[in-house]
Recover the amino acids of this structure.
């Protein structure tokens, strides 16, 4: 089954304790992206990657890091989480070839609470 | 600043009616347009994509695009209570980096 997976699905942590949210896709997609979703603000892009070893900032990258060492994986790293990073996080992927460019498929989400 | 605007709703329609959801965007060179459905606490699910002016139909859903007016809409015919969700409009902006800008979403409530 074609899918994007994220782990963990729920996470409660404390300020300053480093954490990683994993994202993996099995569709051989070149493009992967992280979003956060907050009430009234919609989905905002954090970081994206066009391919292995190619990453760039989205609209709200402060406080986050990413890496893309393998095509299927795109982890999101919070080196020192703060309460304002409490949010619902989604990973998404899409192909960059053919007429289905831009059609992004989303993982199930990770609800992060930083206290 | 590229923007995608949607009425937040809620849009309330009776079961069996047509629900009409609207979206405007700011960038004239946008190439691709999408509608996602999101149930509360769940991830966005792609339901329609449209790339050229006119209408595109898929089952009970019809997407309409008017690039001159920078307007895209989604019609849901024979609305069902299971259609109650938030509908997100997303616009793909040119520039070679596959970026989608999402609207904040319109909440649709279909009542029996």
């Amino acid at each position: 089954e074609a899918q994007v997976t994220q782990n963990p699905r729920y996470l409660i942590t404390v300020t300053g304790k480093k954490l990683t949210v994993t994202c993996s896709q099995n569709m051989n997609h070149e493009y992967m992206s992280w979003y956060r979703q907050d009430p009234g603000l919609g989905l905002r892009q954090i970081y994206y990657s066009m391919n292995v070893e190619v990453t760039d900032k989205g609209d709200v990258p402060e406080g986050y890091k990413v890496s893309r060492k393998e095509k299927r994986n795109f982890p999101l790293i919070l080196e020192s989480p703060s309460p304002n990073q409490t949010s619902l996080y989604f990973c998404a992927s899409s192909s960059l070839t053919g007429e289905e460019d831009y059609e992004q498929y989303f993982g199930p989400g990770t609800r992060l609470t930083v206290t | 600043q590229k923007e995608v605007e949607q009425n937040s709703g809620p849009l309330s329609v009776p079961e069996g009616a047509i629900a009409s959801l609207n979206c405007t965007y700011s960038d004239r060179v946008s190439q691709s347009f999408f509608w996602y459905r999101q149930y509360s606490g769940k991830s966005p699910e792609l339901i329609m994509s449209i790339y050229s002016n006119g209408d595109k139909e898929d089952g009970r859903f019809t997407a309409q695009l008017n690039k001159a007016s920078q307007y895209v809409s989604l019609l849901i015919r024979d609305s069902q209570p299971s259609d109650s969700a938030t509908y997100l409009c997303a616009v793909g902006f040119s520039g070679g980096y596959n970026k989608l800008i999402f609207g904040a979403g319109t909440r649709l409530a279909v009542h029996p």
About this structure: Chain A touches chain B through 26 residues (CB under 8 Å).
